[in-house]
Amino acid sequence: MGRYSLAEFILFEVLHILVFFPTRHNLYRAVILALMIYLAAKIYITTEATEPAGVVYAVGHTIALNFGFTAYLMCTEGSFPNHWRRFRDEIGAGADANGSGNLPSNFPFVKKFWWMLDITHSSRMVGWVQEPKDCLPPPPPPSRTTFLWNTLLKLITNFLLLDLLTYVFAQNPVFDPRVHDPTDSPETYLAAVPLFRRAPYVLAFGLWLALFFKVLHNIAALVFVGLGRSSPTLWPDIWGRWGDAFTLRKLWGCMLSGPGKLVANKILRFPRGTNLSSYTQLYVAFFLSAVFHFGGEFMYERRMVYRSFKFFPLQAVAITLEDFIIFIAKHLLLKRGIKLNPGNPDESWAEAVVRVVGYCWVTLWFCLTLPGYIDGASLAGNYTMDRLPIAQFLFDRWKPSWA
């Protein structure tokens, strides 16, 4: 855990916004980046053990993620800022003979200001020319009233489910250090649960993590669409469908696809669409994810820990093995005239069986690998939480075996 200067972190976040101001003067960005590096180093170095681990982890993770996003936008093909275009700016782009008035660096000051805020908070690039359409859920319909009503209902549902899940976390020795002896090691948390009894805890952890970010996404969508700053079409669901998560590749989705393509296709110049390019993108994405999560772990551990560097690259290895097995299985089945496509709307019983087997495989994989990633964080108090009202009501009437 640690103590950090709130003023320094807020200043870092302000600088992270200002670095994207659409000017072609590189000296401006160099000065801002130098100040960001100085502040980040100071925050990391001066941490002391007083603040909640979850808060400190979020600060460290955010700093690392912001540096990664900044590097991606500045280093991708094409010059910054004019390479990055919003769809709504492209409408009427033919008004100028050469289109120079449509370049972000030539916008009026107020439009530059809003462009800067938009790109700072567009990590998924929704609504931009560079939007990864094959990696996003379908956009909502454009009706503002319908979107706000549906999002409000989703927010209430997600928050109620989040409340219920605190029943599993609070005062549970699988996650909560408050019921452990101070000398207990990480191996006394989820790793201490027999393998095939870990599944409920693994599923609860994954659902809690997904719902936490869905609640934040719902709140942001209600605010920005409600104030008229965003179109509903710019707010697709933050996650895909749970029903599609019957392979590790489908579960993780197109994580960090942009930086992976930058490394594979621009730096290493691997041809697009080849296995070499695809798997380079895969391993780069999981390596970067490990780096970003390491930034949070270092903040509250105050030492070098490598849980993220074990967990995330291991996912890429498992996906590679999974792809190979699926390729072999499809090849053997096609030889016998059998073609399976699980997950399609009118799937056969055989395809449904394949999908169920896939769910079991994904759950088993995380039962094996998740303890090594989260048990150290649980020991530090990263998942310490109290029961919310509904969970407390249920706990008072049906106490679980660990209570």
Automatic annotation (TrEMBL):
Where are the coiled-coil regions?
Answer: none
Q: Which organism is it from?
A: Thelephora terrestris
Name recorded for this polypeptide: Wax synthase domain-containing protein
UniProt keyword terms in alphabetical order: Membrane, Transmembrane, Transmembrane helix
Q: Can you quote a single GO CC term?
A: membrane
Chief subcellular location: membrane
Subcellular locations according to the entry: Membrane
Concerning InterPro entries, the annotation shows:
Wax_synthase_dom
Superkingdom of source = Eukaryota
Q: Where are the transmembrane segments?
A: 30-47, 53-75, 201-227, 282-300, 353-374
UniProt topology in membrane: Multi-pass membrane protein
Enumerate the spans annotated as Wax synthase domain.
Answer: 235-312
